[in-house]
Design a protein that fits this description.
Elements: E1 6-9, H1 13-24, E2 32-35, H2 39-49, E3 52-54, H3 57-63, E4 66-69, H4 73-90, E5 93-96, H5 103-110, E6 115-120, E7 130-136, H6 142-153, E8 156-160, H7 166-175, H8 177-194, H9 199-219, H10 224-230, H11 237-247, H12 250-273
Parallel strand pairs: 1-2, 1-4, 2-3, 4-5, 5-6, 7-8
Antiparallel strand pairs: 6-7
Length: 275
């Protein structure tokens, strides 16, 4: 993977994180290209990461083996169609991290024979702890399959799904998931203030508790249910809180929220097809 030339169309936060992760994992900066419509973004990428930059998207496609589409979904149709002829000539692997844009749309814009991997990353990729699901079309070779996975593993874990439709569920679980945890942290922090703690104390306790719980879950072979039961003493404070959550319909509310997010992801994908 370290010998492949990788180009990013769009140099925003997610692209910058992927580039940083690639360099941290040993990919040479001179093997990486990036384009963006904002000159300041290109200057920043060049100065901070020493990668090749250009304001011309075609320069990127001409130079690389892998093209990562990292522009806003609303602009991807125009960008992709402007590069279609060149992509068909150069035949790079195309990796899309644009939310809501399905492979049928990408193929119609770029060409039916284009090797495409569609990804659903999440914002913790910004701190190299992301969770990304990937799906490849039938034009992607085994070598390209491994290459796409290596790129996304530079910022966290990368998991393949068998059916592209699963990415809608992934969006609901991990794509939008960080916001769910922030919401819980926000509610806990607010209540901690009501209970008399200072803001600094409340925030640090909530943040460290979230980190610790996630670390235990990641390093344990036990299910979340088992871990919860292990730290819930009968008749104790934790049991009282858990019972209050359950009486309020916590599990059902989470299910309703994730189904709503999944359904909206499907709707957005259909909307994007008409752009």
């Amino acid at each position: 993977m370290k010998t492949n030339k990788i180009g990013f169309i769009g140099g925003g936060n997610m692209a910058s994180s992927l580039i940083s992760g690639l360099i941290a994992s040993g990919h040479a900066p001179e093997q990486i290209w990036a384009s963006d419509i904002n000159p300041d973004t290109l200057t920043s990428l060049g100065n901070r990461l020493n990668v090749n930059t250009s304001a011309n998207n075609a320069d990127i496609v001409n130079a690389v083996d892998v093209v990562v589409l990292a522009v806003k979904p609303q602009t991807l149709s125009k960008v992709a169609q402007s590069l279609a002829e060149l992509v068909q000539q150069k035949k790079p692997l195309v990796v899309s991290i644009a939310a809501g844009i399905n492979q049928n749309s990408l193929s119609s814009w770029l060409g039916a024979e284009t090797a495409i991997v569609r990804c659903m990353p999440n914002t913790p990729a910004l701190v190299l702890t992301g969770a990304t699901a990937l799906h490849a079309n039938d034009k992607v070779t085994a070598v390209q399959h491994n290459l796409a996975e290596s790129i996304l593993r530079a910022v966290g874990i990368a998991i393949w799904v068998e059916n592209e439709a699963e990415l809608d569920a992934v969006t609901a679980v991990s794509g939008s998931g960080p916001a769910y945890y922030f919401l819980l942290m926000e509610a806990m922090e607010t209540t901690a203030l009501e209970l008399g703690l200072s803001l600094g104390t409340a925030r640090l306790l909530v943040q460290q508790t979230a980190l610790g719980a996630a670390k235990i879950a990641l390093e344990s072979a036990e299910s979340p249910e088992s871990l919860r039961k292990r730290v819930t003493s009968p008749g104790g404070t934790t049991q009282q809180a858990i019972e209050t959550f359950e009486q309020g319909g916590f599990t059902q509310l989470v299910s309703k929220a994730l189904h709503a997010a999944r359904d909206r992801s499907i709707e957005m994908s259909k909307e994007m097809e008409n752009l």
